[in-house]
Amino acid sequence: MLYALARPLLFALDPETAHHLTLKLSGLAGLLAARPPACPVRAMGLEFANPVGLAAGLDKDAECVDALAAMGFGHLELGGVTPRPQPGNPRPRVFRIPEAQAIINRYGLNSVGIDAFVSNLSRFKRKCVIGVNIGKNKDTPNDRAAEDYETCFEKLYPLVDYVTLNVSSPNTVGLRELQNSANLSALLSRMKTLREKLRDKHGRNVAIAIKIAPDLDGAAIREVAEAAMRERIDGIVATNTTVSRQGVAGFPHSDEAGGLSGAPLRLRSTDVVGALCRALKGAIPVIGVGGILRGADATEKLDAGASLVQIYTGLIYRGPELIPECVSACLARSRTASSASR
């Protein structure tokens, strides 16, 4: 209710300015937010209080971890973060399309860099499962990309529960080439080798996931699944933003470059989740993200085979009330399934 009153004021601001203001006010939102019911889930070897998480991109620099956790998320995916600081693309680089409940962004993986990120993150207590989305610097060639992911992983290892390798942002030229079978297998193999060393050093395991694009065709989705199973990684986040403009064509800002998120992505993302889960046959859990703006959208992803879901653009349009709504819908679905199996 309070967010419904505040939204017109926030939407009167430049989207990126509103983003930063909303983060600063997240502590107040956490205090006022309705607590979602318990709906425990186990995935990626981790215990989640509920299946609804925050998608990467909202808290890029790990500045508001405790406040966001207080909103009732079962997990937070922070970042994306790169090894060295980089400014990203010039502003303006975020555009609302309220007619379609959508956003286009071309941030370009703006990041404070891994050292500042780790310093920020170390100030907070882990009140829920913490993941971090990691990427390569813009000027790092793909044949050296693994070094960037390794740098981030090693520095984050003592502080996080899982990392997600971002190989699918549409705003870093050439990054999506890392999704092809050979490149992905090579990257995952190196990450697993490093994890073995870090597990011995720190006495704890950190799960490894990848985040894929919604623009992959069926064959490419199967290749990703095969590489993931071959390397035995822990999870796949499906999906990132799309370069398609289906559902927003003709609206103001629809011709801006960048990745599209929000309601127009929902069905495509769910289709990818379904195709991926069929290819994986239960071997690896999937985190469904894309176009979740109501509880039924969250359960749609679970029905397609996802174990967990994430929200971001839905928060922009619906506010914190979306979190307990999605958790309650997931809980109702779980109870219905439990009753049916008796």
How would you characterize the overall build of this protein?
The chain is α/β, with parallel strands linked by helices and 342 residues long. It has one domain (2-337): TIM Barrel. Helix content is 40%, strand content 17%. The protein has helices spanning 2-11, 15-24, 26-32, 65-69, 114-121, 145-156, 181-202, 218-231, 266-280, 295-303, 313-318, 322-340; strands at 41-43, 46-48, 52-54, 75-81, 94-97, 102-105, 129-134, 162-166, 207-212, 235-238, 259-262, 286-289, 308-311. The strands form 3 sheets. An 8-stranded parallel beta barrel has the order 3-4-7-8-9-10-12-13, surrounded by 4 helices. A 3-stranded antiparallel beta sheet has the order 5-6-11, with no helix packed on it. The model has no long low-confidence stretch (mean pLDDT 96).
Please describe the topology of this protein.
Layout: H1 2-11, H2 15-24, H3 26-32, E1 41-43, E2 46-48, E3 52-54, H4 65-69, E4 75-81, E5 94-97, E6 102-105, H5 114-121, E7 129-134, H6 145-156, E8 162-166, H7 181-202, E9 207-212, H8 218-231, E10 235-238, E11 259-262, H9 266-280, E12 286-289, H10 295-303, E13 308-311, H11 313-318, H12 322-340
Parallel strand pairs: 3-4, 3-13, 4-7, 7-8, 8-9, 9-10, 10-12, 12-13
Antiparallel strand pairs: 1-2, 5-6, 6-11
